[in-house]
What we know:
- Chain B: GO terms for molecular function: auxin binding.
- Chain B: Keywords: Auxin signaling pathway, Developmental protein, Nucleus, Ubl conjugation pathway.
- Chain A is of the alpha+beta class.
- Chain A has 16 helices and 5 strands.
- In chain A, helix 3 packs across helix 4 (about 45-55) and helix 9 packs antiparallel against helix 10.
- The two termini of chain A are about 35 Å apart.
- Chain B has 21 helices and 23 strands.
- Chain B has a 21-stranded mixed sheet, with helices on one face. In chain B, strands 5-7 form a two-stranded parallel sheet.
- In chain B, helix 3 packs across helix 5 and helix 7 packs parallel to helix 8 (about 135-140).
- Chain B is globular, with a radius of gyration of 26 Å.
Amino acid sequence: MSVPLEHDYIGLAETSSMERSSEKMSSSPSSSCPHVIEDNKSSSSSNTALNLKETELRLGLPGSQSPERKPGPVGVSLFGKDLEHKSNVYSPSSLKNFVSGAKRGFSDAIDGSTGTWVFSINGKNDGDLGKGAVLFSPRGDKSNTQQPSTSVPAKKEIGSVPPSTRPVQEKKNQVSTANEPSSAPAAKAQVVGWPPIRSFRKNTMATNLVKNTEDGEGKSGAGCLYIKVSMEGAPYLRKVDLKNYNNYVELSSALEKMFSCFTIGQCSSNGLHGREGLSERCLKDILSGSEYVLTYEDKDGDWMLVGDVPWEMFTDTCRRLRIMKGSEAIGLAPRAVEKSKNLN
Amino acid sequence: MESELKRFRNSPNSEELTRRSSFPDEVIERVLSLFKSHKDRSAVSLVCKDWYNAERWSRTHVFIGNCYSVSPEIVARRFPNIRSVTLKGKPRFSDFNLVPLNWGADIHAWLVVFADECPFLEELRLKRMTISDESLEFLSVSFPNFKSLSLLSCDGFSTNGLSAIATHCKNLIELDIQENGIDDRGGSWLSCFPESFTLLEVLNFANLTSDINFDVLERLVSRCKSLRVLKVNQSISLEQLPRLLVHAPQLTELGTGSFSQQLTFPQYEELESAFSSCNNIHTLSGLWDVKAIYLPALYSACTNLTFLNLSYAALQGGELAKLLRHCPRLQRLWVMDTVEDKGLEAVGLNCPLLEELRVFPLDPYDEEIAHGVTEAGFIAVSCFCPRLHYVLYFCRQMTNAAVATVVQNCPNFTHFRLCIMNPRQPDCTTGEPMDEAFGAVVKTCTKLQRLSVSGLLTDLTFEYIGKYAKNLETLSVAFAGSSDWGMQCVLEGCPKLRKLEIRDCPFGNKALLSGLEKYESMRSLWMSACNVTMNGCRLLARVMPRLNVEVMKEDGSDDSQADKVYVYRSVAGPRRDAPPSVQTL
Lengths: 344, 585
């Protein structure tokens, strides 16, 4: 499935191809999207524009994103094809998290079977990009595109979209922000003195957590077995122990059982809107026949489609699961700007 | 009436009374000196004047739960022969940054008085007090017999103060520095112990962060033959640890340093061999950054272990299980929630004698990622550990049914502290408030002394507490309750209540003022971020002159709101050392 991905998962892929591609991107005629063009020219105004967009689509933990983790080139790449073939609809803010590593964004994986969604900054085919096609290789089909790149095109190319050169670095920033006792955690404002833990313990554990994450092993708690599973429209979360399953099939059937009551209800009320396309896009074996897509958030805070990486890698990196409506997931592709508003 | 009085005077009882009071004081004192518990002694001192005097002359240890409830002069005058003083200062919520830094509880005034009146003082145990380096130096030179210093959750001092203690206290046997807000300026304080110094029995510097000179430590440990408690800090490596253990096989309490260095096989063997000669260890802690593969080196020392503190060791469930198989006699266990429910099952299976369990969160602020322990782990432990009576449990989800099951399995809880980390979180399966959980606790656990509640709670919880928790002494409440009625229930219903600490609850003046006389039988009341107003506090202060009513205001808050209120009884009157942010009404 993703064998080549494994090679470069820790981000040792070449950057040169990326830079090449980015240069090309800057010269691409994205006339229909003024924001993009301005990005290339003047970073300040586009900073504002992009920042607004970025805050709209919040797939990762708000505030956990380090400045490097801007989505521009990712978005560009995703819609590279679109730029070429469609009406140059471009949303740099979409899928902001799909920057590093050999991970795939929603839309790409969703539309994987078509083989058209490729991380092709210059809009070329998979084959051309080869190593540069990091993130958005179509699911399963085009193995040669599954090269991760840790360095997304440099700042100067995409205005306010700086590269994320080191996933570990980002992770550290993210973790240290999230774990810094004195700063607000990503998801909600911290209450002073709550939970009631003595300062000594808070400070010690925060230091140790950062230390461990820097080591890259993340042993102290990142070996998480219990994963929260949330679902659109469900009143509460469930937890699953990934160690109980050996492959995606087992996981999917367990989740189906767990959430079937909601799925059935939803299906009947919403009908089968957009299902035909969906069965191609979502994992065929998972939640088949329903309009839901299984996604997960990995260690870096990126939202990925479940099923792309080998099972072991998945259990290592998965932090939480989310069953999203297929329409939400797909819509991230062409009409990401609108959909991102809906999501928030 | 008169005839009755005559009869009384001539009755055998009155003769006995006369006989009793003619005992020589020395005899009474000798008898009373056998009473150790300060509660017993307080009771004894109330019998009659003779006994009061006998008791005060023979008292050697004083426990003062609130340093402002009494003045040092009064204490020194009443107990001229004290050798040991335990003092607690700030309200407990100061541990969680709810109390301004310069709030008070400074030890210095006490030291000055004691230096004059009780120069034979040997032991000082402080909790949540402020102590400066100057005070430590003063202490070290003013009390020639000084033997024991224990500082827990204190602040205001640096390692320079420790240097003074090490330098001047020739008779020191205990130096116990725990979880303090200490300004760690380096490890040179350890070198201040003279080379001739050999008396140390207890040395705990586990919570200091700086490196210390290992050679100095090794020499100190090897020459202090009576050393029984040694808790080192993270700077001591796994390679260095055996060299310490080899000098101190008599240790009963060990706190290791870092447990994660890469060891060669010979080094590992040395570690294992060092532990195998430590047959007397009953308390083990430390294990910072633990690498589970090295834990087997400890196994031989775990046979007699009764207290295992893994609260800084991020172990997984399986790793904990392996370790616990070697700890059959464990009574107290502190762990991190990285062990998860699986780890707690292993606790249940391996430690049938368990009496106390504390589960701390690795990352209390991370709500998104599902780590930690749940109701399942709690139930698992309770199933297999019937002797469990003390629990501190940090979790992200809980159910009423689970708690009810737990207390059914373990009805002897004396301390039940449950912290569902997300404020006001309901039962995770039913969506209901957690009232029935705590209802079950207070109904079933008749010996309950300490309770901390959490989760979504209505006044019903407090009705239950007031109705059933007849032995409750300490209650901690946060983000709970629906109205004044809740707090009223507690104040009216819990006869033994001594400490009540409340934050972020909808209790207002009516609740505050429903406990007027009650507060005189309590040590203290804390209310913060509730609905109490300045006028309510003023009224309380006016009606109850023997209470100190202190108000702390937040920046930018409404003038009429009393953001933080601390009420306590005192025979010393209002304190004079309050900072500007604290107003005594």
